[in-house]
């Protein structure tokens, strides 16, 4: 991890690829924390270099003034100050440990009272808090809905550790707690931040919000509003709103009144502060923090925000960090921080997703109806400016609906009411913002002003709150929040239906996206479908938005098991970065560092791809160009559906299943193709041949069914393995399949085969370790449809951009355009993710068969040789072992030898008592 340490010390960008099972996450985390500790000590001792620390949170020049002063000081004074700094540092560490111990004791007392069923008296909290504050000579901490001021000294520099999901972060917190940095005796102050949706502990607010995160935010803020305003709103609808008079605030809903204060925050500030201390004292994951909030009867969301400035280490999901407004709303400050993105293989898509926004035709209809009703009801009480904004909002909703052909008033075909259209595939068309807005008649709308109005007036919530009471009168059905999802194609994947409050928030988010759009924004218009079509704001280029993070942070580190092809990943996210070997920037220079902070000098890029920890003979990757009958294997889109191609694949898989023990995992390029192949195999009897050796399972399209199928697959594999192991123990010989003794082959199956899809649920995050994945078969290359409108627009935009591929790293082979390079990288990342499901730890072993001539280009059939073409975009630990057999015979014999060798090892281990 020297490369990582160097990157953090110097500042810049690091991309580190290391296969699963190598302990990369913990290594990166511990290296970053060790660096943080070292760095702080150095800063305390005034060893920040000639220019001080140019990246400290105080800004590019934050550390330099003090250090410049050193130049004029005599040596003895400098030494004295250094010693004093060291003593101060030690003293602060002592105080911090004491505070951590106290916080843990206090939290344990609350927990004990909770589990004993006693009610914790909040007056006790206040008394203790005041006493502590008096002892420390500080004023009691004040906390409010919109104020997170903290009297503690802020951490001057933080490590912000991001992963895609909360469950991944939970794992990392668990691992941290097993190191000397984490746990109860650890030295690191860590906190996990998340949205109210994860951390709100007020059951009434949650119930009122349903499943809408936006509504929960609004509900929480509404509870925190000054009481007088809330009461006025309830009585006459005159409170709130920009300009003052609008705001019929939900009228007579049976819920806690606005301004009444949340019982988990109001008068519970001491408990919230204690919870913040407890969170810092022993790293907690999101679930633990929320559970502690419930026990302490203290808001976990505000406790996390309160703890945030004092944390050395912040855990945050991608969604909380990638969008500027979201991270600002959570109080995350990237200035001078170290930001680590774990599992970064999909980071480009995550940036696109974080800035995208979806609005359906039905939502447009609902908003138009609600705004109209709201204006009619409160017309006489609305200020002129607010009335104008509301009318604009209504007109926009109508214009958007018209663009989708769902506006009843336009006389256009209403596809949402046409059942024959409901099942039809949506037709997509990508438009520039100008064209789209012109078509909607909205080209003269000031989206910046409208966005500000929506934000400041909270009008979305007011309209929705009013509209909820009037559904029947408006004649608009209930709208599901799920409609805003980009992936709502599966009929089995429906979310519970929610109040249509989501519609107003969806429109507000869409307006916000339009207002923030640059030249790299487009609108995808999809007409038809069950939700009356949809509009999607599409961000074409992730680099411009990611640049804000790169510019603010001291260092940005991407970590993953399968980041290849790394040059393309770098080109998508930081095209201006300079590869380390070519870099001229060495840091520790005021002028240059300041320029870097302002994005004028490219950041240095360090890349590293580590080998696997497994022995060389634990992995056998084969690139297969010809099938059992000698037929050339071509699974490109135009050729793969030929019956001969499917039959050849069937023969190859049946042979492989005969010799592979345990689980075989096959990845197809798409669900549609997997269905075609399966149907043909059933017809031709290939299925029966495979089923003689392995039970067949298929990845379900519906996410809800995946877990059961996986469970059944694992049971089937383990049953087969038990039989195989029993046979190995009972017989001395090992058959060609390495699975049973030569004189006691058990009749029946030796495991199971799972037919999955690249990019499906089973291709990411699922662990096919040990016997669950002894053989992985990759069929073809999962290129996306280049005619898909969003992809086409993105490729075109990248092609037209003036950045060259390879400006951030090695030029792409063949000098392909940036759009083409992006397209290929999408495919290869899907391949690399899929094949990375096997070999999950140091004792694991597996074979990988790449079935397509494109993995083994002509002339390459000479055994081991440097990978060419797409093979050169596989992870290095696969590339360096890749075998390209001369013919199919070598494929089958290679597999036989590989599995036999491991079976013999296993038998030798068993007979020597080693298991
Ligand atoms: S203050 Fe906290 S607990 Fe109360 S509603 Fe807001 S997020 Fe929920």
UniProtKB/TrEMBL annotation:
Record Pfam families: DEAD_2, Helicase_C_2
Keywords, alphabetical: ATP-binding, Helicase, Hydrolase, Iron, Iron-sulfur, Isomerase, Metal-binding, Nucleotide-binding, Nucleus
Record-annotated membrane-spanning stretches: none
UniProt xrefs under Gene3D superfamilies: P-loop containing nucleotide triphosphate hydrolases (3.40.50.300)
Major localization listed first in the record, in broad terms: nucleus
One cellular component (GO) term of this entry: nucleus
Subcellular location, record wording: Nucleus
Gene Ontology annotations of biological process type: establishment of sister chromatid cohesion; nucleobase-containing compound metabolic process
Domain Helicase ATP-binding: 1-394
Record GO terms (molecular function): ATP binding; DNA binding; DNA helicase activity; hydrolase activity, acting on acid anhydrides, in phosphorus-containing anhydrides; iron-sulfur cluster binding; metal ion binding
PROSITE patterns: HELICASE_ATP_BIND_2
Superkingdom assignment: Eukaryota
Protein name (record): Helicase ATP-binding domain-containing protein
Gene source species: Micromonas commoda (strain RCC299 / NOUM17 / CCMP2709)
